[in-house]
């Protein structure tokens, strides 16, 4: 066999055969590589499409709710509840009881049902409330546990007690002194009953802890403001400049808390639309840990002075932002 191979090499037949065999192998390997590359590209494209679809499905419900909230102003409260989507909010480390059904049309609580309410607060029972309508015109609801919420925004007078007791820093605008209401640790006596402003998110949390309370989650704030029937304002579905302090009011600046009696919410809270934006414990930016503020202020027009209005003051002190507190129901 060796001799035959040598003969074929000398005759010029062996070498061409050898090159032809190597070329076929190289072509075959190139073909397989091309096929594998195409399969890899197709797999990556499919994976990207799949992940994008899963992400879209995960966020579509939230986007749908936000979009449908804009329809609330065009709708009137309905007596029947036909819910297609429900969500439940429960505060962290809450010891609240299981949800109780409430059948009173005006969302009041009878004396037999009503627990002992802390001074200066109102009771919001457990249960669902309408936050909007989906694309099929079905009500979308969120359920919360029972809680108490301050009847009024925290005032300068209230905050002064906190400062005197703890030595905490007074409210101060971070950049412009012209926006300061307080002069050192005092404020004009005429503003004693006005909501405290120029308090950061951290300042509000510190006050709430001192009181044995906490800041409301966005959904708790909204439920306290609008009740259960999906209204756009605490008093109903039509804006009325006489029911709140807003940019539509003749007077500018904050008003004493509780000054607009007709602007009370179904649970008896005041100034949940206008006067000052109010801090919530709900994050809108997880990276920077920035929190939402709710309800609009005295500077805002009617399009922002409602129960679905939200702002993002990046946690800093602001001359149009104040707060109120909540507490878990026992």
Overall, the morphology is: elongated
Q: N-to-C terminal Cα separation, in Å?
A: 99 Å
Q: Tell me how many strands there are.
A: 10
By CATH, the superfamily of the domain at 147-328 comes out as paralog of FGE (formylglycine-generating enzyme)
Radius of gyration: 32 Å
Numbering strands along the chain, what is their spatial order in the largest sheet? 8-7-6-9
Detailed description of the structure:
The chain has 330 residues and is of the alpha+beta class. The protein has a domain at 147-328: Alpha-Beta Complex (paralog of FGE (formylglycine-generating enzyme)), CATH 3.90.1580.10. Helix content is 29%, strand content 15%. It is built from five helices and ten strands; from the N terminus they run ααβββββαααβββββ. The protein has helices spanning 2-10, 14-69, 156-166, 201-210, 218-226; strands at 83-89, 121-124, 127-133, 139-144, 147-150, 277-285, 290-294, 310-311, 321-322, 326-328. A four-stranded mixed sheet has the order 8-7-6-9. The longest helix has 56 residues, at 14-69. The N and C termini lie far apart (99 Å). Mean pLDDT is 80; it is low at 1-20, 61-106 and 108-112.
């Amino acid at each position: 066999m060796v001799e035959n191979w040598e003969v074929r090499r000398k005759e010029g037949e062996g070498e061409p055969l050898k090159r032809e065999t190597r070329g076929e192998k190289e072509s075959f390997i190139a073909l397989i590589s091309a096929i594998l590359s195409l399969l890899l590209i197709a797999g990556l494209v499919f994976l990207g499409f799949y992940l994008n679809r899963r992400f879209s499905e995960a966020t579509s419900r939230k986007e749908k709710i936000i979009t449908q909230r804009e329809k609330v102003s065009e709708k009137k409260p309905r007596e029947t509840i036909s819910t297609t989507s429900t969500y439940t909010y429960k505060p962290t480390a809450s010891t609240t009881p299981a949800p109780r059904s409430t059948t009173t049309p005006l969302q009041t609580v009878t004396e037999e049902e009503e627990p002992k309410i802390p001074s200066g607060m109102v009771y919001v029972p457990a249960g669902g409330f309408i936050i909007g309508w989906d694309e099929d015109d079905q009500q979308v609801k969120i359920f919360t546990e029972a809680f108490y919420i301050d009847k009024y925004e925290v005032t300068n007078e209230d905050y002064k007690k906190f400062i005197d007791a703890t030595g905490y820093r007074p409210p101060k605008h971070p950049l412009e002194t012209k926006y300061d209401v307080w002069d050192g640790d005092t404020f004009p006596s005429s503003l004693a009953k006005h909501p405290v402003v120029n308090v950061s998110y951290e300042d509000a949390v510190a006050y709430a802890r001192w009181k044995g309370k906490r800041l409301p989650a966005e959904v708790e704030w909204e439920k306290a403001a609008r009740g259960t029937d999906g209204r756009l304002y605490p008093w109903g579905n039509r804006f009325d400049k006489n029911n709140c302090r807003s940019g539509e009011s003749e007077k500018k600046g904050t008003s004493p808390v509780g000054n607009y009696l007709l602007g009370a919410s179904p649970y008896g809270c005041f100034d949940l639309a206008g006067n000052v934006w109010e801090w919530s414990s709900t994050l809108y930016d997880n990276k920077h840990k920035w929190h939402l503020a709710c309800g609009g202020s005295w500077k805002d027009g009617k399009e922002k002075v409602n129960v679905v209005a939200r702002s993002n003051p990046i946690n800093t002190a602001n001359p149009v932002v104040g707060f109120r507190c909540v507490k878990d129901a026992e």
